[in-house]
Protein 1
Amino acid sequence: MSPIVPRIARRFAILGSGLIRPRVSIDACARARLDLIRWAAAIGVLMTHIRSTMFVPFPDVSNKSVAARVFYAATGIGHLAVMVFFVLSGYLVGGRLLARYCSGNASIPRYLLDRFTRLYIVLIPALLITALFDRIGVGAFNANGVYSHSSVPEVPGIKYSILERLDLRHLLSNLCMLQQTLTPTYGSNAPLWSLANEFWYYLALPCLIVAADRTQRGSRRVSCLLALLAMVWALEGEILTYALVWGTGVGVAFLPRVPLRHIWVALLGFGAVALVSRAFDAAISRMGGARLAVDLTCALAFAAVLAAVVHRQGSTPVGRAAAIHERLAGVSYSAYAMHAPLLTLAVAALYDEFGIGLHMQPNAQGLLVYAAVLLGVAIVVGVLGGILEPRTEAVRGWLKRLLHVH
């Protein structure tokens, strides 16, 4: 056994007698469930962003029927879905790195190359698509001020001037994952904020591991500690605080097989927490720091779901549905990173040409237009994701050969 194992295990064992060495073991059944969660969360983000852009805020709905309330509730889970992504990432990326490090077979250079490839194979095309679509929108469909933030009334889902964020400074900042820290997100692509969080968590975790490992050379430990301190000093506050949410996913890797055998129990608990947070969303938003506390509570509730999923392996036969889940999950990152500029262009064109697509009421016409835009955006980003994401491994292999990373 590597000498690293008992030392790291002892460090985490002080957090609670039930914690053990990190372990990330996922069979085909659990992977199918995780794929289902991934693509469902991506759809939740799309549904939320499209509804918040196209429809009036709920207080301005003329007929607050039960159907309208259900529609707004079902299409208001985008932020919660991002928290789910954070927890999944913490487990699948952070937990796996710790497990491999504790077993003595982790390669930090290979880990970093894998992470950078995964992020940038979609991020670079997403930025180019944002630049192209936003420039088309500014030139052809800005008569109502959608891109210049001068529309009356204001578009609820677009709270800033897209035109002012289309310069080279914003582009380079987002390319370097400094959105939120140096500049806001690029153009209309507001969802890119969370990619910066992921990027810096990917960097911080190996620095933390090496800095805490007494078997490493002193100079290496000091260098990693200084890198961590530099991140804490330089990065925007929410990137740092939401590391707690990402860390809940990492924590799942340290749990023993939980006694909670019924996934539905964990799902009901997560659903109850999500419903309460959604019901008091407006009040929570006004309370500042309460948002992080609520998001962390939701993350912990979902961590219970995640633990139940990965610990209850092999309980259901894997059939054709697993292949569908895998295919849809395989384009979920592209859907998240690319949908916003396409959505903005679509609704700006609809509004300029036909007077629909913005400031809509949740009536039959509004819901029909919403469904058409959702379907169209989902198809386009799905096709783009199907082109880009399957090439991740090929690009990784090429870079590993080029950089001699093993």
Protein 2
Amino acid sequence: MLSVQFSQLRQSIIRREGCPFRHLVRMLRWALYRFPRRTRKSCKRRRPCSGLLKCAPLPLPAAATSLTETQHLQPKASACSVYSQKRSTARSLESGAAENNMEIKPTEIEALEARLRRLSRQVRWLVLYAMLSLPLFVVLTFTAYRVNTGHAGVLRARGLVIEDSAGRDRILLGAPIPFSADRVRTDTHRVRRHWARTYAAASAYMQWYQNYRHGAYGMVVMNEDGFDRVLVGDRLADPNIGRRMFEMAGVVWNDAKGWELGGLGVNTTADGKSRSVVGVDGSDGEAVHLVSLEDGTRGIIIGGQDGRLLIGKSPREGRFFRNKEPFTGFLHFDSSGKVNWRQGIPGRP
């Protein structure tokens, strides 16, 4: 009868159903669970502790103590026993991993965890950068494709200097043209060396040269030596032999040393009137000119060392042909400017 009661008590403790000491059993299990965690520092050398107070078996109730003789209930008595159970579990896991050709290395796991943390930080920063750059990208996109009907495809600048492969200034563009240190016209030392020395009165030439106009509203093309070869635009520069009597808009071309050899364009006089001129010069001065003057005179001028020949027609009181009545014909001037031959066309005014 007594054995039957002990058997029933044992089953009730194990199942925790209907046991009169079930609360005591729960407290005992809780104490056995909490006690090793508090005494883990004493067992960190992975060997049984010598202390009697920290790792001593916990006292059990009398009934439970009597039941230990049956070897059906073996409570966790110390922290060292708990550690031994965990160590045996780890060894079983390692043995299972070895059977599956796997090797567990704590250093590799730590390296993987650190790498995972770095990747997580990088992903967070990448998301932040993307969120910040998205508005800027949208603004730049709309700005790039914005249609400006007023200035679409227009490049605005006050001046432009184009150099050759050697770094010399070759083309000047602007309104007015920009300054260039390679240009002979704006270098008085080079002007004296190249142009003034061709005259007997070099000092007088340099004084006159100070009043010359050297700018232009347009384009000037220079050669590798810095001499002006082609001028295109408005208010073109004066030739290096003297000032113009009018403002010229058109094209002028020079020789390799900067001496003017011709041009075409519209000349504006001081009183605001315009005349169209096409001229070709020679080394000794004006050669052939085609003119259409503001007073209605039309003619061709052929010049030379011995004078000039005028062919054309002029209205009354024409200053070009020096006529009082309307004139159509030929007129020759000598080198001093005196008329030595006049021939009108019969039947023509």
